[in-house]
Specification:
By secondary structure, the protein is mainly α. The chain has one domain (6-204): Orthogonal Bundle (Jann2411-like fold). It is built from 7 helices and 4 strands; from the N terminus they run αααααββαββα. The protein has helices at 6-9, 12-15, 26-33, 50-67, 81-99, 137-154, 186-204, and strands spanning 120-124, 127-131, 160-162, 171-173. It has a two-stranded antiparallel sheet with strand order 1-2. A two-stranded antiparallel sheet has the order 3-4.
Length: 205
Amino acid sequence: MTEGTGRYMAWPATTRYGLSVAPGNLGLVQDFLNTITEGTIAPPDLLATLDSAQEWADQVTEQWISIDELGWAKTLPRLTENDRKALAAFRDRLFEGLFGHSHSETASRAGRNNLTYRPVLTVSTEGIGLRPDGEGWKYFETALLLICHQGQIEGVLRRMKSCKSDTCDVVFYDRSNNNSAVWHDVKVCGNRANVRAYRERAASH
């Protein structure tokens, strides 16, 4: 996927940060995680209200259908308030599962358990495969996990990272040759960390 194209612009949450998006379906996972409100720039949490969540869902599912490489994308029902709350809770658990820490300060200890979903095993002339299962937005959640699983197999999931800054959890896709990037924006978060470290060193002398 190329930056600056219409497809790049269609990922609404990630585009807010001017970031390069993860390839293929992994861009959906990145966008879902980037619906958070980030501590420095502080854009709104896109799952905070039913209206904003529905607007995000409409855009992101349309984009997913347009780029889907696995045949998993489909139109999903309109969100209910219960759906919105469930997606926000799932986002927090997925965030912690992928990056080892929770974005939400109100995350419950129960949310730190392993995520368990049941995909469907399929058999065809191409071999045995997995497909998402579940009704409504549970299907979407299962699909996100399977996309992560596919990214893990392909070796690209490790390039999707949460910014190292203490005040920023923006999820970026590391395209550096040695997969060494730690900041979603070196000029913002990286520079801020360097300034803080310099002041701490100066204060200790």
